[in-house]
Task: structure prediction
Amino acid sequence: MAVMTYAEASRAAIAEEMRRDPAVYKGLVEEFGTERISDAPISEACIMGAAVGAAMMGTRPIVEMRFSDFALCAVDELVNQAAKARYMFGGQTRVPLVVREPIGMWRSSAAQHSQSLEAWYAHIPGLVVACPATPADNKGLMKSAIRCDDPVVYMEHKNLWGLEGEVPGCLKAAEALAARGVEAEVIDLRTLWPWDKARVLASVERTGRLLVVQEAVSVAGFGAEIAATVAERLHKALKAPVRRLGAPRVPISYAPPLEDVVRVSEAMIVAAAEGLVA
Amino acid sequence: VNERVAPNLDVERLSAHHRLMWRIRAFEELALEGLKEKLVLGAIHPSIGQEGVAAGVCPNLLSDDVLLSTHRGHGHTLAKGADPLAMMRELFGREGGNCGGKGGSMHIADFAVGMLGANGVVAANIVIAAGAAHAIKLKRERKIVCCIFGDGAINRGPFLEGLNWAKVFDLPALFVCEDNGFAATTRTRAMTAGDGPSARARSLGLVAEEIDGNDVQAVDLAAREAVRAVRDGSGPRFLHLHTYRLTGHTGADPAAYRPKEEVESRWQDDPIARAAALLESAGVPAKALAAAKDEAYREMRAAYDAAKATPYPPVEQAYADVQDVGDPRREAF
Result:
């Protein structure tokens, strides 16, 4: 299999799906022309709303929001319209759209271009939330998202665009922990709705310990859902309290030291994990 | 031949409009009765006095054409061909409603007749309409999209975004501003800068016409022409139809923010009475006009009674049609 970066992977997935299905539109102008790959005015609400209308008419639009921060201009269209149409119209329609909302901190992008808002959408019935972390997942999940009949919020991490192979962060931390004799099982959830609850519960049953790591603000983040689920189900199996590691509840700064201080680092993951086995 | 009758009066066509307006009026009056009887459970937004818009515009659409409506959408939905019994069931939250009782008045939709939904969010349907028209264009179909919204909608961003989109992509969309003078409980004029809906549409390059929306014949003519132009591929068009909301914003709103005399004088401009007067002057017997009204009330009363006798949906339906993946249920321990 060709080695591709994280960014190339989602692009390849879109191209393959567009070749397979003429109802998919967005993307790659040279191959598919300006009809299926359309430019758009800077009209987030209309981009998202038009995707809802087009999806209800039997197409499979892929929407590019550039940043999850910008997609906030189109939350009504996503939350009140896309997520609700199938249900509130009693199953008369489906809204098979994919909205790409890249998330996460990258260097000095500050408060309006750095947020990780995945928990907002995991909270909304009707939406699927995908967060691929590797090139392979970015290709596979994008294809699944395009074929999915429900609206999918597709959140790629901007810092992974150039990545080939596996993700840094938790896996690196796990290697460091292994060197210190602590065996950590790393679970990458890939999707937050639905999320692989069974796999997390099985792991905690084995280890008795759980550290939830996310880049997003900890307060009311998706990690809280995971921690609560484990606490509700497995409190007797726990050998240590469930820990969460995420950002403090502050906006992201521009100045590198201020940005770095809120970022979850490998060292922080290692330290937190060691605290669980101490 | 009565000399006072305009030579272009199409008695048969106007009679159909007259019947349709009575059906809408009867449906909504019974819906209001249902509200009093606690059969209609949530808010309803009557379009009493505005029937000329629904009856003048919607019959010009083919069944394949797509209609998007507002929270005040009973008339549009009926005029697009939806079954009043299914609609009444929807308003009563019953099984067999258009949306299985899950949408109610504000989310009424009937995809089988191309009615892609009322919308509980002002102006939200405009951008959805742009997308539906975009899909039609991509698929090279002859259908058109008709999007009806109120005068309040023109002060929301999606109005600008959706009209701009429809124009730059040259889409088969007819935008209809049903201007009843009120944005919910506020006079729209006082809250709207500039020259209003048509001026804004023209500023984006859309052909826009301003019509007396209570003159169902004029609405019909303008809509017919606009639908033809849009279908022929000349890009989006805009109709600004002036009317007046004779009831409150919702069925529960006494509308104390406007003088009684104003409402009384606007009743003199009732689109149904205007159509009836024209028909009478063309020689249609008063008996036939009264029969149209009686027939409409009989039809809607039957729908009312049948809806009332229909059960609520089974509770299992709360979990149906959420999405394909993930279990939406509460966890059991």
